[in-house]
Each structure stands twice: as C-alpha cells, then as structure tokens.
Amino acid sequence: MAGARFRVITGQVVPAEVPADPLLFQAECVEAFVVSWTARGFAATTIGNDAGLLERMLAVLGRPAWEVTPGDVDRVVGGLAAAGRAASTRRNYLQVFRGFHRFLEARKAAEIEAAFGVWLTCPVDEFNSARHVSDDSPAQDPPPSPERVAEFFAFLKARIATARKYAPAARDYALFRTLYHAGTRCEEAVLLNIADVHFGRGPFGKLHVRFGKGARTSGPRPRWVPMLDGLDVLLRWFLDDVRGRFPGQPCCSATSPAGSCRPARSATGCGT
Prior knowledge:
Mean pLDDT: 82
Radius of gyration: 26 Å
Order of helices and strands: EEHHHHHHHEEEH
Largest sheet: 3 strands, antiparallel
Number of domains: 2
Strand content: 5-15%
Low-confidence stretches: 135-139, 263-272
C-alpha cells in the first residue's frame, strides 16, 4: 500500500495507519468479539444478552476499554450497588467486560498501542470484582489429588468406629461419598428423599435429583444420576443400618429438621 508505514510494537509489526477514532475502533472490536462467541458455539440468546450487557457497560464507563482504570470500574460497580442491582447482575457486567478486555489483549493489543499509545492492563482486579468473576482461569487452589481424597475418606470411615455417636458419623461418611461419586451439589444431596433412591433403575441404580440447580430464575431442574463406583452398595448399607436411627425425617441424608426436607446447617456444613 502506497505511503504505508510500519512500526514495531512489542515484537510485532503492525500498520501505523489504524483508525484514529477510538470509539469507532472499539465498536469494530466489539463486533469481532461477538463473532468470536459465535465461533465458540455460544447460543444466539446468550450472545444477544451478553452483547447488550457489554454495550451498556461501555456506555456507562464513558471511555474506550483500554483507557478504563480501576477507579472507573469502582465507580460503575458502586453505582449499580447503590441503585439496588443484585450482586449477580453486577457480577455479570464485570464478567462480560473482563472477557472483552482479554479479547483486546489477545487480538488487538499491538494495534491499540500503535494507535493510542496505551499498553493494556485489565482494570478489573481483586478489589472491585465479586466472587466468581473470572475469564475461565483456573482456580487458585488445585483440586485434591486421588491420594488426598482417599486419605480423607479413610479418615471419615475410621471416625465412625471412634465417634461418640455412631449415626451422625456414619451419615456424614455416606453423604460425602454421595457428593463425590454422584457429582451432586451439596444442597441437592441433602434434599434427596428416601423415595429418590432407585436401586432398580439401570445396572447400578439411580438417584432422582428433584431439586437440581436451575439456570437463572427457571427454578429446580430434576435429573437422574447413576450410582457409580459402588455408591449403590454404600447407600444400601446406609439405608439398612444407619437411616433408621433418624426417625421422623423424610430426607435420605437426615440432615434437615424433623418433618421437612429443607437445607439445614449440620456437622457436615452442607446447609445453606
């Protein structure tokens, strides 16, 4: 291209002639970001909702994403909180903005530095983001190793023989085993009824998780979970030898107040 000049930016060669209008350039970046969602297979409704959140977030910030500072994020999130917006809503705004900023860092950093002289640094940090705001980064703590898990269950099993009360210790052991082998959430497990345990379904039996976690405000989503890795044998032992020691409670795990199946805080720490 006649008259084109090139500059070397952080090891990359980019054209010096990039859009001079920062808002126009940002709009093009947003379009490219939305296209990347489509390429990753996101549903059209998800893309539409998140794109709307991103546009509103950028409008309230009032400046291009690469010029946003942690103070700007503090101001916007504080305004949302003062307006009574739910923590989940504030988290969604931060989540989509952080994802867009990472897209700029991965795809547009050289162009932004060449055109506007800005080195991208994400303004969403540990001081202004709520829990669970992430960009699909791994958790800080790695999952426990198989050896560590085996050691944990060996401790719980040995505790049954030495605990002052046999029934609660045996119940806790069965409950944690259910969480591990069935992959249920804690509240889902404590809300299981005795009638939800179906040993005759399939080769290993299944649990009917009637209060499965729903999406957004859809309410509970029931599902069937197979009892793998000997969980059926464990639950047969629990129902035959342990469950009868907790009379008057319909919940399988017997962690709720008598006559109800609502989550309860217990020694297991599974209540909400």
